[in-house]
Design a protein that fits this description.
Length: about 400
């Protein structure tokens, strides 16, 4: 495991930087949501903030921020703008996942570059089946060592800012045939890291970006398609077998996603309070018949804001406590098979609550929230993305249910 021993006191200036950057993301966010493109000015600002190096251990040139500290920074940034932050979230996810799986030598080189300000991303999901589908992308062994990668990844968040790529591909025979045996195919699926040197048109050597991102929300993530057409990875770009490696450190994905949606919850509550505490309906006829109706005095609005604030507080506790339990090694007490879904619960809990909150905010604010440009319609669209990133609710419950229904577990 990476040594991450930044004290709370040492962390404070990093959090203050996050508060500053969050304000900038908040300012520029609406423009890039409307234009449906990556938020380009965020690159310089993110690099200058120095926040990208936060989780890099001191031994590799960073401050050594831990999971909980990274979570706090991400939520703070997401409170400013969730779409822009979801892009940089991929950087934190991949520093955490790759950093915990790379050799000392690889970490010195790659995390050393991250400590110097470079940005890393991770396109893994493919079209057939996102993250859980075994990679159809091929890594064909080369006569002089290393592999050439062929295939495409349809979810390349942050590609327009990244300097380093991590991805997964299945090692084939010399002719490019995937293993026919299922278990062999699982074992052959591998985790790679390499340079992401592209020109201003998104063209590189054996690799290119195709701009396909056009979705309901999270516009500024710039989640484009990445084509691999003979992209060369030398032997020292091999990290480990993908499934057995990544599934042991997926807290860096799941809990970072949870942090995005906790930050979004903060924002939903903030915007709802700001609007509903001031809104006046004037003379009304209907459920309330009165000369002058202030929304902040209406029963279901008072209850609604209380409900929202309760969900935020409980979500924060679930996320922070899950991070803390992992930092304290309490996950050792969980059944091994349940480690992944138990970590995933924090993400699914926060995700379900943020979707509930964005819908409820619109119903309380009323029709004006539905108009384009209103922050509430934006939060509603963006929150829908929380359904998809791993783990989703259905799969978490499947993992847990399957485990509990095994006859031998009934004796425990
Ligand atoms: C804004 C955004 C940005 C993203 N950025 C990235 C990125 O940078 N890198 C990246 O790799 N991915 C990224 N993703 C992709 C995301 O991780 C995928 O949505 C996820 O991998 C699920 O894949 P899918 O949505 O294609 O669904 P599918 O995998 O096609 O799932 C379809 C259905 O099958 C079910 N299902 C799938 N597999 C199983 C299984 N094994 N067991 C039981 N049920 C199953 C699902 O629950 C779902 O109901 C991003 C997604 C979004 C929304």
């Amino acid at each position: 495991m990476l040594e991450q021993d930044l004290t709370d006191e040492e962390f404070q200036p990093y959090f203050e930087k996050a508060e500053e950057l969050s304000k900038f993301f908040r300012e520029i966010g609406p423009k890039y949501d409307a234009e449906n493109t990556f938020a380009y000015p965020s690159i310089k600002a993110f690099k200058e903030s120095g926040l990208g190096s936060l989780p890099v251990p001191k031994a590799f040139g960073g401050p050594g921020g831990n999971l909980l500290q990274a979570s706090k920074v991400i939520s703070e940034l997401s409170k400013g703008d969730s779409a822009i932050t979801l892009a940089y979230n991929m950087h934190y996810i991949m520093v955490g996942i790759a950093g915990n799986l790379m050799s000392e030598e690889q970490n010195k080189y790659w995390l050393g570059r991250v400590a110097d300000g470079e940005i890393i991303f991770g396109p893994f999901s493919e079209q057939r089946a996102g993250f859980s589908g075994l990679a159809d992308m091929k890594a064909i062994p080369q006569p002089n060592g290393g592999w050439k990668l062929y295939g495409k990844k349809t979810w390349g968040t942050l590609c327009e800012a990244a300097d380093i790529i991590t991805t997964n591909a299945t090692i084939t025979d010399a002719e490019g045939n995937l293993p026919e045996d299922f278990q062999e195919r699982v074992n052959a699926e591998s985790f790679f890291i390499g340079d992401f040197n592209l020109d201003e048109n998104g063209q590189g050597d054996g690799i290119r970006i195709e701009k396909t991102w056009d979705a309901l929300g999270m516009h500024a993530t710039g989640t484009q398609t990445i084509h691999f057409d003979g992209y060369y990875v030398p032997e020292d770009g091999f990290i480990c077998e993908w499934r057995s490696g990544a599934f042991g450190v997926l807290e860096w994905a799941s809990l970072m996603f949870a942090s995005i949606y906790l930050g979004m919850q903060y924002r939903v509550l903030e915007e709802s309070r700001a609007t509903l505490s001031k809104k006046t309906l004037g003379a009304t006829f209907g459920a309330i018949v009165a000369e002058d109706t202030k929304v902040s005095g209406v029963g279901h609005i008072i209850d609604g804001i209380g409900d929202m604030a309760s969900r935020v507080e409980i979500s924060r506790r679930v996320l922070y406590q899950t991070c803390q339990e992992l930092l304290d090694g309490k996950d050792d007490e969980w059944p091994l098979e349940l480690r992944f879904p138990y970590i995933g619960l924090a993400k699914t809990f926060v995700a379900e609550n943020v979707m509930h909150m964005t819908r409820h905010a619109m119903s309380m604010v009323g029709g004006s929230s539905f108009r384009k440009g209103a922050i509430f319609e934006r939060l509603y669209r963006d929150s829908a993305a929380s359904m998809f990133q791993p783990l989703n609710s259905d799969q978490s419950r499947t993992y847990i249910g399957e485990y509990l229904l095994q006859p031998e577990q009934l004796n425990d």
